[in-house]
């Protein structure tokens, strides 16, 4: 698998973000935003909140680091 940083850093919806992390529901992504692991972005052309791809793919490492503290 290629390193995620080699991919473009797109804005993606919460449902798609949930699928990429292996969740079935977007509410887990909302929980990660509330806990400060992800930043939410409101773009003028979209009514729904988006997250950045690179931030999303770094979440497993961030969660693991915070659990080790």
Describe the structure.
With 69 residues, the protein is α+β, with helices and mostly antiparallel strands. The protein has one domain (9-68). It is built from 3 helices and 3 strands; from the N terminus they run E-H-H-E-E-H. A 3-stranded antiparallel sheet has the order 1-3-2. The longest helix has 16 residues, at 53-68. The radius of gyration is 12 Å and the shape is globular. The mean pLDDT is 88.
How would you concisely characterize the structure shown here?
With 69 residues, this protein is of the alpha+beta class. It has one domain.
Q: Summarize the biggest pleated sheet.
A: 3 strands, antiparallel
Q: Which class of secondary structure composition applies to the elements?
A: alpha+beta
**How many beta-strand segments?**
3
SSE string: EHHEEH
Number of discrete domains: 1
Uncertain residue segments: none
Any key phrases for this structure?
alpha+beta; 69 residues
Q: What is the fold's blueprint, element by element?
A:
Blueprint: E1 11-13, H1 14-21, H2 27-34, E2 41-42, E3 49-52, H3 53-68
Antiparallel strand pairs: 1-3, 2-3
């Amino acid at each position: 698998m290629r390193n995620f940083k080699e991919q473009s850093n797109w804005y993606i919806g919460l449902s798609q973000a949930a699928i990429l992390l292996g969740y079935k529901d977007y509410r887990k992504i909302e929980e990660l935003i509330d806990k400060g692991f992800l930043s939410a972005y409101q773009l003028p052309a979209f009514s729904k909140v988006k997250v950045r791809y690179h931030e999303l793919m770094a979440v497993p490492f961030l969660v693991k680091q915070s659990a080790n503290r």
